[in-house]
Amino acid sequence: MSVRIGVIGCGVMGADHARLLCGKTPGAELVAVHDPDPARAAAAAAFGRDVRSHPIAIDLIKDHGVDAVLVASPDPTHAPLTIACIEAGKPVLCEKPLAASLEECREVMKAEIAGKRRLAQVGFMRRFDPGYLAMKRELRSGRIGDPLFFHCVHRNAVAPDYIDSDLVIANSSVHEIDIARFLLEEEFKAVTVVSARRSRKAANRQPQFLILESSNGIVVTVEAFLDAQYGYDVQAELVGEEGAISLAPSPPVSSRLAHRAGFDVAQDWRARFADAYRDQLREWVAAIETGRSVGSSAWDGYAASATAAAALQARASGAKTPVALEERPAFYAS
Ligand SMILES: NC(=O)c1ccc[n+]([C@@H]2O[C@H](COP(=O)([O-])OP(=O)(O)OC[C@H]3O[C@@H](n4cnc5c(N)ncnc54)[C@H](O)[C@@H]3O)[C@@H](O)[C@H]2O)c1
């Protein structure tokens, strides 16, 4: 029997998840959607057959015909909806970040611990990207030696106006924070942030540069620039004592055309991380079928947001700032 899934929030991400759930995710069936904008709900529902459109999000969560929920609505809705899913005993894949505040991250963990079941996964899809996974395998093989630096570049072509300098860190750089934690298997102890001058293409935010120090002294740098115009460009290089590994350009082909040799740059994240979004859903559904949990847990969501919160303080103060992580609950030990 398939896992019957409801999608809450049918904008750019929700619609893309709905599309992937219909045809690209074995064992999944899109059965319900919710979006305050009926046209968006209808467009997402149209990917499936006989998909119910719930005018109220909680009704979708309580729908007895829904086994699991994907939350792709705006950040402030993530924690309340994720907690409602946990209280209904339903697995939930919540887009990143886990919550809009650390207090809400803690409430999600509290709800999961009270229910004694790992039900929440955070949509840090880079953990399923073939490039980062190959990087992790190389690191584990020992061929590049122990890591010293992890350099990350995160450039969007354009971004919505509501993304201010704080959200460049709290909404975008959390991806780098999570993937660095995943690769290095360490937490961060301190962060420094330097803001570049405003691009003339974006009046309401500055590009940010983060320097994160891990508990074992590995330095992670992140350039976060959301108005790069030329495309969506994510780069990463891991430098070890004996060698370095970089993500290859995606797609992994190059062209020679009109006196130029090079490769195409994706317009946005859906094309660049198409494999990662597809595999994230496949593994989420397979894990539900077998009662396991995969991907970023609520603890990972909290740790990424707590590190981002320290980065926001560092940006405001201009000083190197300690990352204050709570002790990891035993519930999230593995
Ligand atoms: N994993 C990634 O790479 C990635 C990429 C982009 C966005 N995101 C995350 O996905 C989420 C959605 O981003 P998006 O780019 O699709 O935004 P969007 O604005 O395109 O879509 C959001 C949708 O949510 C709906 N909505 C608004 N209020 C709602 C509510 N209270 N309840 C339910 N739905 C509501 C809106 O009508 C809209 O259709 C954000 O949290 C964002 O951080 C993740």
- Coarse morphology: globular
Low-confidence parts, pLDDT < 50 over ≥5 residues? none
The small-molecule ligands in this entry are: nicotinamide-adenine-dinucleotide
- Report, as a whole number of angstroms, the end-to-end distance: 29 Å
Rg for CA atoms: 20 Å
How much strand?
15-25%
- Main β-sheet, spatial strand arrangement: 12-11-7-10-9-8-15
What's the overall average pLDDT, rounded? 97
Number of helices: 10
Number of strands: 15
User: H/E series, N to C?
Assistant: EHEHEHEHEHEHEHEEEEEEEHHHE
What is the percent of helical residues?
A: 25-40%
Structural class determined from secondary elements: alpha/beta
What does this protein look like?
This protein has 334 residues and is an alpha/beta fold. The chain is globular. Strands 12-11-7-10-9-8-15 form a seven-stranded mixed β-sheet, with helices on one face. The protein has a six-stranded parallel β-sheet with strand order 3-2-1-4-5-6, with helices on both faces. The chain has a two-stranded antiparallel ribbon with strand order 13-14. The longest helix is centred in the middle third of the chain and has 20 residues, at 165-184. The mean pLDDT is 97. The chain is 37% helix and 22% strand. Helix 1 links the parallel strand 1 and strand 2. It has ten helices and 15 strands. The two termini are 29 Å apart. It binds nicotinamide-adenine-dinucleotide. Nicotinamide-adenine-dinucleotide binds next to helix 1 and helix 4.
